[in-house]
Amino acid sequence: MKRFSLEGVELEIRDSGVHGTGAFARGRIRAGAPVVHVTGRVVLAPVDAVMPDTFWALQVAPGVWLEADPESHDPDNYMNHSCEPNVGFVRGTLTFYALRDIEPGEELLWDYSTAMNEPGWAAPCRCGAATCRGLLQGFRDLDPAVQDRLRSIALDYLRG
Ligand SMILES: [Zn+2]
To answer: 20 to 30 A from 73, CA-CA: which of 21, 37, 39, 116?
Structure first.
């Protein structure tokens, strides 16, 4: 188990039993608190490139990715997706903020479509949320109504 602390927010990385490894709150996190800064090695690719399935990275701008360092065990490497997330890019920057109060032991979950914009990218979603879209997609491929709902927790480059 790995433990992290950012500005008073205590996290741990452990097996979630549902999604595999996940990041969990150790203490209560107040709505609006910064929770995790996204880190990684910058990788540049052509705009609208389709990346291989084995590429473990977060898209942060057109043609710009942050690749996870498998040795680093940074919490953002382990944060799973939910269609009803409890953290998001509230300020459009590479910091996750709590979208509501998060209780001790709760898994930190964000919506992958608020960063990913790779054309044609799709993966089945079984997050279990009542509002589950059933399919993970890049922001560009979402229904306009879903885009509107997600815009306020998406990275700056997707806000238009
Ligand atoms: Zn879902």
So the answer is: 116
From ligand 1's centre to the CA of 101, what distance in Å? Answer: 21
156: three-class secondary structure by DSSP: helix
Strand partners, 24: 12, 107
CA gap 15, 140 in Å, rounded: 32
Distance 127 CA to ligand 1 centre (A): 4
pTM: 0.92
Distance 133 CA to ligand 1 centre (A): 5
State pLDDT tens for residues 65-91. 999 887 877 888 889 999 999 999 999
User: Which CATH number describes the domain made up of 2-158?
Assistant: 2.170.270.10
Give the start-to-end residue ranges of the domains of the chain: 2-158
Judge whether residue 9 has pLDDT over 70. yes
